[in-house]
Design a protein that fits this description.
The chain is mainly α. It has helices at about 5-20, 25-40, 40-55, 60-70, 75-85, 95-115, 115-120, 145-165, 170-185, 190-215, 240-250; strands spanning about 130, 135. A two-stranded antiparallel ribbon has the order 1-2. α1 (about 5-20) crosses α6 and α2 (about 25-40) packs parallel to α10 (about 190-215). The longest helix is centred in the last third of the chain and has 24 residues, at about 190-215.
């Protein structure tokens, strides 16, 4: 049994309900389906943003650990994991939204692949076109599909740039920015409906990035440790110097002690 079959069934039911009950075309049903998926993933997205912010703030400390144990990879990994636990950082939280979207993406591919044979014949007078440009069941390389592909690449670069600004390494940022161009030869063979799904996802991610950068507060920066620590209580604090000197210059009767200045030269006569 295909492990994605349950997801395919859910996607088919949602698309069918959006088309027959809500009255949307098949293409706009895919757009609404994408929005529903992204809404469900909002809690994971919030964790992703907080995780990336925490990694960015603790980047100097992690870099110091990497430099300290650069000759011992195993010890370096152990110390980094220990650092993550102490500071409550989940380095894998930034990947959660993508990991949950991958099976949905693949399942939707299979749904659209057999759409004309399994789903479309059950509905009469239903259009497969999106804004009279593309057919959701045809490959992206047909007709106006390449234009949609260009819009996809631009949206992917924009959404990736907004998310990658939280990353520590420029190499990671450049790698993610180059992935959309690398995937073009594969994406051009996908059904256009799948491209609509991914394009809507990128537009959502772009808007989400702009909103969260302004509204979501950043976690408090880590407290800097200092070698000078204040006394634990007032009882442990040392007494002021003025108070000690004033008490030591008084006699038991409470009278101040008269100080006599010594003459220079030890009092010898010239």
């Amino acid at each position: 049994m295909n492990p994605l079959t349950p997801i395919e069934s859910v996607l088919t039911e949602v698309l069918t309900w959006l088309h027959s009950s809500v009255g949307l075309t098949w293409a706009w049903s895919i757009v609404v389906l994408t929005v529903l998926v992204r809404v469900v993933l909002v809690p994971l997205t919030i964790k992703q943003i907080h995780s990336m912010q925490s990694l960015q703030m603790h980047a100097p400390e992690m870099k110091a650990i990497q430099q300290r144990y650069k000759g011992d990879r195993q010890r370096q990994s152990e110390e980094l994991m220990k650092f993550y636990r102490e500071n409550k950082i989940n380095p894998y939280a930034s990947c959660l939204p993508i990991l949950f979207q991958i099976p949905i993406f693949i399942a939707l591919f299979f749904v659209l692949r057999d759409f004309k044979d399994d789903i479309y014949p059950n509905f009469e007078a239903s259009s497969l076109e999106w804004i009279n440009l593309v057919d959701i069941t045809e490959n992206t390389g047909i007709g106006w599909g390449p234009v949609l592909l260009v819009v996809y690449v631009i949206s992917q670069l924009t959404s990736t740039w907004l998310m990658s600004t939280q990353m520590q390494s420029n190499a990671q940022r450049y790698m993610l920015m180059g992935l959309p161009i690398f995937f073009i030869p594969f994406i051009i063979r996908f059904p256009t409906g799948l491209m609509i799904y991914w394009l809507t996802t990128n537009l959502w991610t772009t808007g989400q990035g702009l909103v969260t950068r302004k509204l979501m507060p950043k976690p408090a920066p880590p407290q800097k440790k200092s070698s000078r620590t204040p006394p634990k209580s007032a009882a442990d604090a040392p007494e002021p110097v003025e108070a000690i000197s004033s008490e030591s210059t008084r006699t038991p009767t409470g009278q101040p002690v008269r100080r006599v200045k010594k003459k220079r030269g030890g009092g010898r006569k010239r």
